[in-house]
Q: What sequence folds into this?
């Protein structure tokens, strides 16, 4: 009962974040974004109370959500302190990268056996992303380019591992995790266009990015309950 309620409340604050951002109310939007991030963690904690059998998975996912909160804070501050925009984007990206390291580690704990297939799929996707960054002439320096490639590898590998585990085991949790990971891949791809290209439709892209990101985080938190 609590999980659907918490998910709905979190989704409401996530929607408020998007609406306030579109109206140019950056500070209010940032506050709602922080509340949404705490909502993700609350879902995971309550989910663990219902299902105490996988404490290590719970800890890894919660640390992932915690670093996701850190990334939200850093990118939120960027909205009210544009002077430090580039530094905050780099630090926010690093925080989200660490978040996905924890998610990936949680998936590895449940993997039935190592397979090169997810790794090969990830390598191909990462190579394509590396080329696309150049094709779309994204305005990134060499350090940020390397960080984006590492980040792309991690989120793609998380999706590939979750998909592989579901394919082998047919466990519902990893279908949810696979969908969440795909949403992260899509969300972060959209975000790269927002930050690093001179696109004219940034409001629409930000709405799309935040919507897919929030759904992904809610689903990831729910996996603690379903595993």
A:
């Amino acid at each position: 009962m609590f999980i659907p309620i918490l998910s709905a409340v979190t989704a409401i604050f996530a929607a408020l974040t998007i609406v306030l951002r579109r109206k140019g109310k950056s500070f209010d939007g940032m506050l709602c974004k922080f509340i949404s991030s705490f909502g993700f963690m609350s879902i995971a904690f309550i989910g663990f109370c219902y299902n105490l059998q996988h404490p290590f998975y719970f800890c890894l996912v919660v640390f992932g959500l915690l670093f996701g909160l850190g990334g939200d804070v850093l990118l939120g501050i960027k909205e009210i302190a544009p002077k430090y925009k580039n530094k905050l984007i780099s630090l926010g990206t690093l925080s989200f990268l660490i978040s996905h390291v924890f998610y990936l580690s949680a998936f590895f704990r449940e993997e039935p056996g190592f397979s090169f297939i997810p790794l090969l799929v990830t390598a191909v996707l990462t190579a394509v992303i590396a080329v696309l960054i150049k094709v779309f002439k994204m305005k990134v320096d060499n350090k940020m380019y390397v960080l984006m490639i590492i980040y792309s590898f991690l989120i793609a590998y998380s999706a590939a591992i979750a998909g592989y585990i579901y394919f082998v085991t047919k466990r519902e949790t990893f279908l949810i995790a696979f969908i969440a990971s795909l949403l992260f891949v899509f969300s972060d791809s959209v975000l790269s266009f927002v930050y690093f290209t001179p696109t004219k439709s940034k409001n629409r892209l930000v709405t799309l990015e935040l919507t897919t990101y929030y759904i992904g985080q809610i689903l990831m938190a729910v996996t603690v309950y379903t595993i």
Notes: DSSP finds eight helices and no strands in the chain. The helical segments are 2-22, 26-50, 55-80, 85-110, 116-135, 142-169, 172-196, 202-226. The mean pLDDT is 89. The CA atoms of residues 41 and 168 lie 29 Å apart.
